[in-house]
Every structure is written in C-alpha cells, then in structure tokens.
Amino acid sequence: MSDNILVIGSGAGGATVARELSKKGKKVTLVEKGNFHPKGSAAKNLKSKLAIQEIDTIKEEKLKKNELYKYLIKNLTDDNVHRLNLELMYLEGVGGTTTVSMANACYACSSCYADSTTTQFQRHDLELYDEFLEASQEMNVNPLPFEYRGPITQKITDAGEKLGFFMEAMPKFIDFSICDKCGNCLFYCKTNAKWDSTFYINEAQKNGAELITDFNIKRVLHNQKRVTGVEGVFNGNKKIIKADKVILSAGALNTPIILRNSGIKKGVGENIFCDLFITVGAFLKDSNFNQEIPMGVKTEFGPYFISPHFSAYLPPLIEQKYKEQGKTVEVSSKDVVGFMIKIADESNGYIDKKGQIFKDISSQDLKLFEEGIKKASDILIEIGADPNSIVISPVRGAHPGGSAAMGRVVDESLQTEIEGLYIADASVIPRAPGRPPILTIVGLAKKLAKIIVQKS
Ligand SMILES: Cc1cc2nc3c(=O)[nH]c(=O)nc-3n(C[C@H](O)[C@H](O)[C@H](O)COP(=O)(O)OP(=O)(O)OC[C@H]3O[C@@H](n4cnc5c(N)ncnc54)[C@H](O)[C@@H]3O)c2cc1C
Ligand code: SF4
User: Fold this and answer.
1) What is the mean pLDDT of the chain?
2) 237: which of 13, 56, 229, 323 is 20 to 30 A away, CA to CA?
3) In this structure, what CATH number is given to the domain that contains residue 130?
4) Confidence label for 50 from pLDDT (cuts 50, 70 and 90)
5) Ligand 1, from 46, 101, 194, 198: best to mutate by most atoms within 8 Å of Cβ?
6) 88-115 mean pLDDT
7) Are residues 234 and 124 in the same domain?
C-alpha cells in the first residue's frame, strides 16, 4: 500500500514537493493554513513580523558612531534607540509568499557569490544542478529580454557600465510570450505570465493530490522515533490526520514554531537570516520608473547585489529631505528612481518560544550596505537624479531562512531527528544567500521528492 504523505504549506517548497510526489503516483495531502487570495489582493495581505534588535552596550557604542546606523535609526525616539525593529515580510494563503514575488529567479551560484546556496549544499554533498535545470524549464526562467527593459532601467544600465559596473539582465520566471510589460509583478499578474506556486498546486491536484485550506497545523505527531500524523485547527475544531510521512514547508518563520510544538528543539529557530535590504532613492521628475518591470537588471558584488527598484517608502522621505533643506517639493511616485541593495546578512537571528524574533544588524551588514549605497547613489546621480534628494528606506527582509538549517536540524536528506519528518522550505538553507531564494527552494523540494521516491 502507498504511504500517506502530508505536506504542510503550499508556498515554494510545499507546492513543489506535492507536485513532484503526486506526479510519481504518491498519495499526497497538501494542507494550507490560509485560503485562496481573491484576484489581485495577495499583496494587500502581505504580513510582516517585526524583529527586535538586541544590542549589547559595547556594540551599541560602536554602532552609534556609524553614520548609516544613525540615519537608519533617525526616526526612532531615544527610548527605543536600542530597539531598531527590522520588518520581515511573508505571506500566508494558497501559493505562500511566491504569489507576491518580483519573479527574480537567481540560481545563487558560486559565480555570483562564494558562499552561495549551491556551494553551501554541496558542502553537505547535495547537488541541485539537475533540479535547477528542470525548474528553469518549467518556470520559464529567462533573463529579462532587452525590449522589456524600461527606459530608466536602460539608462541605469548605461550609467552603471560607464562607471565600470557589469549590469546583467535579471533572470525572471516570466513567460515573456504573454507578458504585457505592465510592471505590476509584485501586486497582480493578470496575464498569468509570472510563475507562482499555484501553478504547481494545480498540477498536483490534477495528479490526484488533495488540497485542504484553512487548516492551521499546530504540531506533528510522532512516537519519538517515527512520524504518525499531524494535529491542527480546522473550522475552529481540533483535527488530527494520520500520515506515514510529513513534509514541513510552512516557511522559515512558521516551521520552527511547529517543530518546537512537536518537541523538536535542538538548533530550531536559531541562526536566522533574511537577506536584509534597503532601497536608495532620489528625485527625477516625471521619470515614471515606478511603472517599469521591477529589478530588470542587477550587478553582483559577492555578498550583495544592487538592482533598480522603486519603494513606496521613498516619495515621503524625499519630500521630508527637501523640507529639511528649506524647500517645498511635491514628490509623487512617478518622480522617484531607486536601487535595492540586498545583502547576505549575518545569521544572527532567533525566534523565542512565543514566536518573537530577535535579529541584529551587524557591523558587517552595515559595511555591505554602505558599499552598496555609494555605488547606487553614483549611478542615480549619473542618470540625472538630484544628489540633494538621496534617501534610504527602512531596513527590511523578504527572504527569512536558516531557522531549521541543514547540518543543525535536518540531515543531507532533509530529514529531521524523527524518521519520516522532512523539511522543504527556506528554513533549511544554512546561511543567507543574499539572492532571491525561490529557485533554490524549488530545487531542494524537487530533490527531496526524488529522495523519498528512491527510499520507498
Ligand atoms: C515582497 C516579496 C517579494 C519577493 N520576491 C522574490 C523574488 O522575486 N524571487 C525570489 O526568489 N524570492 C522572492 N521573495 C521571497 C520568496 O517569496 C520566499 O523566500 C519563498 O516564497 C519562501 O518559500 P517557502 O516555501 O519557504 O515559504 P512560503 O512560500 O512563505 O510558504 C509557506 C506556506 O506555509 C503556510 N503555512 C504557514 N504556517 C502554516 C501552518 N501552521 N499550517 C499550514 N500551513 C502553514 C503559509 O500560509 C504559506 O502558504 C519575495 C518575498 C517577498 C515578501
Ligand atoms: S510585467 Fe505585468 S504581465 Fe509581465 S509578469 Fe509582471 S505583472 Fe505579469
């Protein structure tokens, strides 16, 4: 008789493993805490958890002298200067966080970064090349074609190259044969050109997998040795489902909580990274950059990269900056150009028993940001943005991971200390990739499906 396999979470990891296993004829139940987002509403439902910084006194004195740090904490009061909250973003519901992605499809390979995820997993004897290739074909991964670059993105590319930076087209999981260049990737792709994990969920269902929504899994049941099922809340009632194998893919901020509730504690919820990012922006009247396909090109600098990006934080910050200079300038979204600086931050975060996250910006993180800000500002000025208008958005993180890392919580077959309990999501990535992780997570989930099929 075939094993009952239960997958928790329908984002990048969960949807992939459900699709792969159902394709191989396995009996799969995919359980999701949320429901379908009504068309176009996913971004409105974006959630964030505030990570508290715990700064010891010596570190604090050092940080207080750092100009960038002073700038970033500018809007905080004296009372909470010790506690610069970092906003970590994620989304619950069918498709998980993939539904709000910008379609960036980085392989996170050693040619962009020596401590890339590819290298990190190779250290655990896990090769993902075949899985990356499969995923790239299925997800339509291609560098953004030249004709899809907006005019400001092209100007930025030319300016960057003039200043000596290699600006390459961003690989995207977009079917360009149906993309209408609307630039709305984060909010709603009405043409279905952008891949998200609902594509894989649909296939899994066609293969016979069952999807149960609005089922909030609380813990995994086991007899100390082997998995026996899951327990959660469905329609306000406690519900138990028996299973022979459970794959936990609830995302890096939820997976550790379920593990802890299930009595698995060693190394869980420690070591968190989130690929911290900021957006540097400046005033360029009527540039209409906010309507271009976001992050169309990128430049790699080892542990960080920079990429053209608009953030809604920027217009009011620029207005405020002008005000401080005694000028009244109305700044709307169409008048702003910007760059995202995304870094491989230190894995120094942890989640406590109550689910509160603690995470510091380290001196090394600040150093990387400073380098990126300098380069991004030079490019923005080169394209004609006002040098007196440069501002920096708050620090955020959209790629939380590392909270149940390989080598600490799971072994090289992605299995925990409990036989039959596996993890396939961003939690298992050992250290920050500093790059968009969906392709890595999809690759890992494909690998896990192969491991399970081989074993059975
Ligand atoms: C605004 C934004 C833009 C991004 N853009 C990109 C991009 O362009 N490229 C890229 O590679 N990455 C991008 N990312 C990051 C990427 O989306 C995530 O890293 C990735 O989706 C994580 O995959 P995952 O499987 O770990 O978790 P998720 O995709 O978050 O899936 C977790 C799922 O588990 C469910 N769940 C949680 N708790 C429970 C529970 N108790 N019971 C049942 N189900 C549960 C959730 O509802 C969710 O569906 C972006 C992130 C954000 C926030
Ligand atoms: S530019 Fe528009 S059509 Fe193209 S992928 Fe993004 S949202 Fe979809």
Assistant:
1) 92
2) 13
3) 3.50.50.60
4) confident
5) 101
6) 91
7) yes
Distance 264 CA to ligand 2 centre (A): 41
- Is the same domain home to 19 and 129? yes
Q: Provide the percentage of residues in the chain whose pLDDT is more than 70.
A: 93
Task: Answer yes or no: are the C-beta atoms of 277 and 87 closer than 8 Å.
Answer: no
Q: Do 359 and 441 reside in the same domain of the chain?
A: no
Residue 322 above 80 pLDDT?
yes
As for ligand 1, residues whose beta carbon falls within 6 Å of it are 8-14, 31-34, 89-90, 92-93, 96-98, 100-104, 186, 216-217, 249-252, 254, 258, 398-399, 425-426, 436-438, 441
392, part of any domain:
yes
pLDDT band at 73 (very low <50, low <70, confident <90, very high): low
CA of 137 to the centre of ligand 2 (A): 18
Which residue would you say has higher pLDDT here, 56 or 87?
Answer: 87
Residues 237 and 309 in one domain: no
Same domain, 334 and 442: no
User: Which amino acid makes up residue 304?
Assistant: Y
Which amino acids bring their CB within 6 angstroms of ligand 2?
Answer: 103, 174, 179-185, 189, 191, 193-194, 293
Task: Establish if 78 belongs to a structural domain.
Answer: yes
Q: Which domain holds residue 114?
A: 4-44+92-140+175-270+401-455
Q: CA-to-CA distance for 15 and 21, rounded, in angstroms?
A: 10
Residue from 29, 87, 98, 253 to probe ligand 1 pocket by mutation (most atoms less than 8 Å from CB): 98
Q: Which of 378, 397, 416 is the last residue of a domain?
A: 397
Residue 194 included in any domain:
yes
User: Are residues 391 and 410 located together in one domain of the fold?
Assistant: no
- Give the predicted TM-score (pTM) of the model: 0.95
The residue nearest atom 5 of ligand 2, judged by CA position, is 194
Tens of pLDDT, residues 162-220 = 999 999 999 999 999 999 999 999 999 999 999 999 999 999 999 999 999 999 999 99
Side chain identity at residue 303, one-letter code = P
Whether residue 311 is contained in a domain is answered as yes
